[in-house]
Amino acid sequence: MALILRGRPLVPGTALGPVLAASEPLSFWGGYDPRSGEIIDRRHPLAGKRAVGKILVIPLTRGSSTTTAILLEAIRAGTAPAAIVTTGVDAFVALASIVADEVFGMPIPIVALSNHDFATLASDDIVAIDRDGAVTVRREDP
Amino acid sequence: MRPRTSLTLSNTDRAMLTGDHGPAARLAMSIVTRMATVLDAPTLMDISAAHIDSTIYVGEAGLEFAERLAGMGARVAVPATLNVSGLDEHHWQEWAVPAEWAGLAHRQMVAYRAMGCEPTWTCAPYQTEWRPTFGQQVAWGESNAIAFANSVLGARTERYPDLLDICCAITGRVPAHGLHLTECRAGDFLVRLTGVPSGLQRDDSFFPVLGHLLGELARDRIPVVEGLTVSPSEDQLKALCAAAATSGAVALIHLVGITPEAHTMEEAFQGHAPGETHEISLERLRRVRRLLTTADSTDLDMVVLGSPHFSLAEFRQLAPLLEGRAKHPDVRFLVTTSRLMAEMARASGALDALERFGGTVTVDTCILASPMLPPDVRLLMTNSAKYAYYAPGLLGTSVTFGSLADCVQSAVRGRVERDETLWR
Fold it and tell me: Considering the entire predicted model, what is its pTM?
């Protein structure tokens, strides 16, 4: 069974991987270790999880304006999520990928979903992202 | 989730985009216009100043970005102040900063200076000569500074992330979007203080706690706060803004009667009705205050003050608390501030008072932006909600939050002691 969510591609691209989802916002500065790709904000529900190669699904980023710089480091170092899906437009996350594209030629897909669609994604779903912003969720039939 | 508008550019914007103003302006304008599209901005608009947060050294990619721009001959088009760097440029050797790391962080300082930015090296640019004025359109990075500029000064800035701030400064242009526009500055919801004693509201430990709660409630919305019965000092407002911009993505708080465009509730909400109302009791604030402490013992290695950077007024408030006392030999006592404020504190005698007590200052940076703390520092105490929030994740330390007086008392005793009278 496949569920297709129509998102807006803030930075277009393709990705395939398991979802890492939380309903809490995340600050990458102080919250994401670009050396390991681990979420290190101890107050965050995903604390201790590694997001490398995952489709990170978070509502929006929080607080620090250094979030963009940390995500750029992670993209450059290969420790970033394979793609990031947010609810609504998160400019900080989009910017990191745009700069990664402009300076290093290595963007990651960033997709904005509606609140409703965002809430249907859960950790361990396998998700494919297309250039047009379609997010295809593959779930085993029960 | 489709884009609503297409972007219309001016002739100058287009000239930059095609490289007529050089390769640096072309790269910067390409990033600014792609962000304008992401944000659904119909046009770009002029700014007259910028504050660059991208100075914080976090790794080689950010350094490569800065050196690429500087190497292309980038120059800022508007006065641009610089946020903290990764180093106290002239004193980093007194701390645990690895020499190799210092070399990289210093190259980043050199790159941003080469673009013509002002070497202010502070996260409190609103306490320098480049403080923006009411209604001024600016592109500011650094979350606490953004919240202060909008909420206390009535200047207009969106939340500019690292890397975009410098692109805006180079082009002098920003997406016409968000908090630059009057209609986007209306309050979203009401926060009403009820039964919070004025004695507590006057205490410096109240504002970081209230700010932390505002950030949690607001996320990225605009809170309107009613019910303050005191007139906060500038540094109390600074602490409030820093805390709210840490626990949430808060860029503007309307403090009714204080924020220049929020003389009344009606003005704060621009005539709309509040989306919701949160009544804030003393009990709720107590719970938030407890969250700012992660330490489970009264052991103490270091007291650290100054996030955002300590002001002259704060040095003057601290000095009498230190008079005739000395810190415990096993506890370090550090104040993080700017070069400018350290010089003024020296001239006023307040820095001598700190040094007689056994304390030190670090300038240009802070404990979160620089790997300066030696590994034996595990247990921190601070009066800053921002230090309290970030230190456990970024530094792996535990932390105790307290008032300025609590911090001094604890440094003298060598263990955490907090006066709970006002919080009972």
Answer: 0.94
